[in-house]
Structures are given as C-alpha cells and as structure tokens.
Request: fold
Amino acid sequence: MQLKEGDSAPAFTLPGAGGETLSIAALSGKKVVLYFYPKDDTSGCTKEAIEFNALRDKFAKAGATIVGMSPDSAKSHDKFRTKYELAFPLAADETKETLSAYGVWVEKSMYGRKYMGVERSTFLIDANGKIARIWRKVKVPGHADEVLMAAEGL
Reply:
C-alpha cells in the first residue's frame, strides 16, 4: 500500500551521522522535510543535498527541519556531511525497513537490468505527524525551492 497525503508518517528510529539517533517522534510538533536519496556522494544526491543545505536557514524560518535518508551507513553519512559541510541530519536505513514503509525502496531498471533501489522522493510532514505533500521520482534542479515554498505555506 502506497502512502498518500493525509496519512500518518511512519515512525522510525535510526542511527545518523555524528553518532546521533534520529526519530520521527523526536521531531513531533515540528514540520519535517524528509527526503530520500539513493547514495551518498553521487552526483545527483550531492546536488540535492547541497540545494537543501543552501536553503536550511529559510526552512528553519518556516519552522521545518530537514532530514535526509538513504540506505548508506552512518559512517558513510559522516564522510558525506563533512565533505560538503551539510548542516542537517542524515539517517542511515541499512535494513531498508523505513525506506520500505515510505514506499521508496522499489524495483528500478537501468539498461534493461532490474534491481532494488531508492526512488528519489520527498515527504513534507506537518507538525501533527501527517503527510502534507509527497514528491516522487524527484528531479533535483529546483526541487528544494519547491519544497521550501510548500513548507512556508503549511
């Protein structure tokens, strides 16, 4: 079953970069921009992270917390955050349970080869833990700006 706008955001507690633990419960009462990306330090994922990072002050003014999530390890996230000076948390879902709960761990195809991977997606979660907006199959250029406008209007 695929999540839709108005559904409750699935709960999670995961390790993050810098030894932190990230959970949706700890963010209760805040707007959350939860974006899912395939892999640390790849071109599209790096561009997306840099775009969100550049707007982090504007997201904060809108009362929204940014959280990135991928199946990479917390150690990989540490290197990625340090390399690009990312100032928001990155959650490590190595078991892919949370990725599956949000419906972003999907079968993909490249050059005729099928494999499982993360569908680049963003969920805007309201202060009550409900999904306010969903973007699936995200194209990176301009996406962070679009999410910011939605967060400001929430």
The first helix runs from residue 43 to 54.
